[in-house]
Structure formats: C-alpha cells, structure tokens
C-alpha cells in the first residue's frame, strides 16, 4: 500500500481512530442527477426539478442504517441546494461542494477506475 507522510491516504498527521470510523460510515451522494432529477441539465443554476424516484427512500434507509450521508455538488450556491433538500424533506448530515473522505461516492457521471488503458479506450 502506498503511503503519504507515513500513513495511508493523505497529508498531515495521521487520522485518529474516530476520524477513520467516521469516513468508513460516510456515503457521499451527488446532488444533480442522483437526488435532484436535473432533467434539463444546467439552466440558470436553480434547483428546478423533482427528486429522482427512490432517492428520498434510499437516503432515509442509508441514514437509518447508521451511515453518515454527505450530499456533494459542484454548485456554489449551497443555500439553494439546502432549501431544495429541506423542501422535499431529504435527509442528510452534511452538504458540501468539496470532496469529503467517504466509504463510497454515488455519482451519475462517475467512471469506475480499473486501470489507465481501459480509461483511454473509453475516451480515445
């Protein structure tokens, strides 16, 4: 396993046991396309669409199963996203536009990395 600064996974002092336990129970979920249906893509930055079918129930299940649910987005206006989540009563523990340490990232635009030759075959 590759290490950075003497411990797996990063810079700075090694994480505490409580920090490791926290991210191991964190699921990061993308907002647009995974929670917010985003059917017309980016318009004027507003959160205009309904929730993706099943999103609320799935996040409730993750949350009640003891996972920390972090909603992430590339949007800068986090207040608009928080208002939309509140309006639809979507459960979450944190809202951010940064990549947070997590057990898994659920994202509609992700490509699962296996190796660089496979990635190049996809895009080149």
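^ Assign residues to that structure.
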């Amino acid at each position: 396993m590759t290490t950075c600064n003497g411990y797996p996974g990063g810079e700075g002092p090694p994480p505490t046991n409580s920090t490791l336990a926290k991210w191991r129970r964190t699921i990061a979920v993308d907002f647009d396309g995974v929670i917010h249906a985003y059917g017309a893509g980016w318009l004027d930055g507003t959160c205009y669409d309904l929730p993706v079918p099943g999103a609320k129930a799935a996040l409730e299940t993750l949350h009640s199963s003891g996972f920390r649910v972090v909603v992430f987005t590339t949007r800068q206006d986090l207040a608009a996203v928080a208002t939309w989540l509140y309006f639809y009563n979507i459960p979450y523990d944190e809202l951010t536009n940064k990549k947070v340490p997590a057990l898994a990232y659920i994202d509609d635009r992700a490509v699962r990395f296996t190796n660089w030759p496979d990635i190049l075959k996809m895009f080149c």
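Residues 32 and 38 are 6 Å apart (CA to CA).
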